[in-house]
Amino acid sequence: MNRMMTLVAFLQAQNCSNLPGSWRHPSTMLDFTTPEYYQRIARTLEDGKIQLAFFDDRLALPDLYTGHHAEAIGAGVRAVKMDPSTILMAMGMATQKLGLGTTYSTTYYEPYHVARVFATMDLMLKGRVAWNIVTSLNSAEALNFGQASHMEHDARYDRADEFMEVVMGHWNTWEDDALILDKAGQFADPAKVHRLDHVGANFKSRGPFSVPRSPQGHPVLIQAGQSGRGQAFAAHWAELVFVIYHNLEAGKQQYAAFKNAVAAAGRDPSQVHIAPACYVIVGGSEDEAQAKRAIIEESARPVDALVLISEVLNYDFGAKGYDEPFSDEELAGFSWHGFRERVVQFSGKKNPTVRDFVEVSGRGTIAEHMVFCGTPKSVADQMEEWFVAPACDGFVLAATHMPGSYEDAVRLVVPELQRRGLFQREYRGNTLRENLGLDIPRATDWHQKRKAAQ
Ligand SMILES: Cc1cc2nc3c(=O)[nH]c(=O)nc-3n(C[C@H](O)[C@H](O)[C@H](O)COP(=O)(O)O)c2cc1C
Question: Do the Cβ atoms of 171 and 119 come closer than 8 Å?
């Protein structure tokens, strides 16, 4: 079979997409606190045979800029944040095949809890669930969870590695054929239910885990770290990797380097899909697409960028002069290393300023991600170029307005990609793993690997 694109819809359980101005767009619907809003999007995505809808998440409002929430609330910059796992279930009830993923933090949650929530969702949604593993980004999240400060970057990943050992251990507690369901005999085979008994530097978790396996074994694992430490983590654990690539050339190099890192970690690179985030703006003619783009660009305000950069770097950008360079010490403390490194590289400055961070990152505007703008044909040309380069295995489609962005992608771009044989015309199976072309893992393989490693 031809290599097929993986298409992922980037969703937020909030008042805007990851583009803050999207809530101000004239055709955005504002019923984001209702299940209908999310179910409408889910049905559209399933019509388009999109493999996965995925929610990002943060465990705090973005209130680092100016040290108060007034700016974020007033401007509606991610001013609402609901728990995405609950919304995922509402979307799952309105669809049959669409994969559904969400973000949960390894820094602020407990592994047993996360393992149980995701295993249960994966059963209720019949093997369609994915988990985006994040280590979280800022002190506002720490303060919401009773901690004085956010944990240091590499220590967060060390904790995340151990978190994964616990979650995977619990998910592999029940062998695939452990359930017997013989009313006259045994319910399940005790020899096929393995207690974890984990004791480590960060966690103790005994088990046995109380949720049997799902039709896809366990949820698909997503990760998006781009620092050296983040990539090492992703190469070891992730099956779907979200990235931000600055341009096609950088994308080609980083894609090849990451696939090599996966192979070096002893895994099959074809079982790990890489998908950069992008915006798609499509119209019946080039002029129409450009007119749509102008409306989207007009919806951005300068405060959007400052609020969102402060949030992810864990630093108040309002406390610094716009053209004042950051010191080495300040830069070292920034939370999202991959973000910082991109700005250093593409500004060409060892000590960039606030302006450099705003302009190079494009955060808070559509310039943050690649923008594929034009007619269905020219948008498909651009996506095809990235895909065959290869600089990716698919794309994370971010929304400029809701639900119109997803509707445009599904009604206008998907048919053109299908016509070219680049995207599936039908779902390949019922589970997310089948639809991503990922192997279904067996619990016994996990136990054998662990024994061999001991
Ligand atoms: C497409 C995409 C989605 C992301 N979603 C989230 C998210 O929902 N929550 C979060 O805390 N971080 C999110 N991140 C940030 C990463 O998970 C990660 O924290 C960040 O890349 C910092 O890691 P690094 O220092 O290894 O680069 C996302 C990144 C990308 C590229």
Answer: yes
- 340 in contact with ligand 1, CB cutoff 6 A: no
For ligand 1, atom 31, the nearest C-alpha belongs to 243
Instruction: Report the separation in Å between the CA atom of 199 and the middle of ligand 1, taken as the mean of its atom positions.
Output: 28
292 alpha carbon to ligand 1 midpoint, in Å?
Answer: 28
Nearest CA to ligand 1 atom 18: 225
- In ligand 1, the atom with minimum distance to the C-alpha of 105 is 11
pLDDT at res. 375: 98
Question: Rounded mean pLDDT of 393-412?
Answer: 98
User: Taking every pair of C-alpha atoms in the chain, what is the biggest distance, in angstroms?
Assistant: 77
Q: What mean pLDDT is predicted for residues 365-376?
A: 96
Predicted confidence at residue 225, as pLDDT, reads 85
Pocket test for ligand 1, best of 134, 246, 361, 368 (most atoms within 8 A of CB): 134
Is a pLDDT exceeding 70 seen at residue 1?
no
Q: Is 76 in the pocket of ligand 1 (CB under 6 A)?
A: no
Pairing of strands 394-398, 6-11: parallel
Q: Which two tokens stand for residue 172?
A: 């592999």
d(CA 388, CA 4): 10
What is the tens place of the pLDDT at every residue in 260-291? Answer: 999 999 999 999 999 999 999 999 999 999 99
Give domain 6-289+370-453's CATH architecture.
Alpha-Beta Barrel (3.20)
Give residue-wise pLDDT tens across range 290-301.
Answer: 999 999 999 999
CB 14 within 8 A of CB 81: yes
User: In the chain, helix, strand, coil percent, each to 5?
Assistant: 45, 15, 40
Chain centroid to Cα 206, Å, comes to: 29
Instruction: Of 9, 143, 10, 14, give the one whose Cα is nearest residue 78.
Output: 14
How many residues in the chain? 454
pLDDT at 454 over 90: no
Q: Which atom of ligand 1 is nearest to the CA of 135?
A: 19
Predicted confidence (pLDDT) at residue 400 exceeds the cutoff of 70: yes
CA of 344 to the centre of ligand 1 (A): 18
From the CB of 56, is ligand 1 less than 6 Å away? yes
DSSP 8-state symbol, 377: H
Task: Return d(Cα 323, Cα 325) in angstroms, integer.
Answer: 6
